[in-house]
Amino acid sequence: MIVNRINWLEKIEFLFSVTPLVCILGPRQCGKTTLAREYLKTLSGPVHYFDCENPQDLTSLESPLLTLSSLNGIIVIDEVQNLPEIFPILRVLADQEDFDGKFLILGSASRDLLRQSSETLAGRISYLELTPLSATEVDGLQKLWIQGGYPNAFLNSGEKSMAWRQGYITTYLEKDIPNLGINIPPRTLRRFWMMLTHYHGQIFNASEIGKSLGVAHTTARHYLDILTSTFMIRELEPWYENIGKRQVKSPKVYFRDSGIYHALLGIDNYQSILRHPKLGASWEGFALEEILRYHKVNQEEAFFWSVHNQAELDLLLFKDTRRLGFEFKYADAPRLTKSMVSVLEMLKLDELTVVYPGKKNYKLTEEIQCVGLDNFLQS
Prior knowledge:
The protein is α/β, with parallel strands linked by helices. The protein has helices spanning 6-16, 32-41, 55-60, 64-68, 87-94, 115-120, 141-147, 151-155, 158-179, 186-196, 206-213, 217-229, 258-265, 270-274, 279-295, 338-346, 373-377; strands at 21-25, 47-51, 73-78, 101-107, 125-129, 202-203, 233-236, 252-255, 302-306, 312-319, 322-328, 351-356, 362-363, 368-372.
């Protein structure tokens, strides 16, 4: 059911024309290794592969300069977050004029957690964030919403998909987080993660969550940073407009993969989500992620906006000098609201799109239109 990921292969090739090191970041099991192997198939020169979860490969990299300096062609280092001390060595090799190799690095942690790379490899490395499968890469929007975009979750049947996602959550808590050197009891982080299911699509309140967990608000904030830096949670920052009104200044939080969100909620099929009180929030988070991927936006280009007890906007994008606004509604036929009109005027939007799960596109005003998610992504 996967269409293809040819666009990602083209991105890798382009980035190698810019820098000698390319780092593909993304959550575990989202397809980084598969993508790397597909890219390697397009090459004709020598290829060398090191997996930092393989004891034999780790042993060979105990003297990384000696091991790598004699190689040429493409050198792949997978799960590099397990070997952060290799980054200074990569800088040395990248700066050697007689070194005839390029590095493709794969990591399951963000640049914030791989700080050594940004510090030692500035100007020598390009980053590419690989997401789980999106609606433009697969057939079956409804299945993608319910089961999420991790290949093993999407391609399996409902029962097997749920079992895989539950196992993924356990592995993430009990293995992946400790492997990053983060010492938090898995049960504590699971409780925090479960709490976030109730904040999905809402303002993050560190004090409130900290009080429920029996920890300081700074500790709750630290837990959120961990989930954000490992691609589990998206923080959407608020936008401030000079309008003389009291605007919300705390971030919203979203689960980046709807399948993981549903697994934590115990939702395993379409009928279950339709009866669940988090139906609207689930749709909002899923549609928001798809819109962000469609527009290929950076973190600093995406915001939400809200005035206390007044108007609000689910998503504000800045693209090519334009202000694009999005509202996400799980409804048969969304109608024009006072908030939409106020947002359009106060934020000076070029256009406002209401994204809903229907098939028909129609205008609410000249600047405000309702568009089905599937229609939007195919436009």
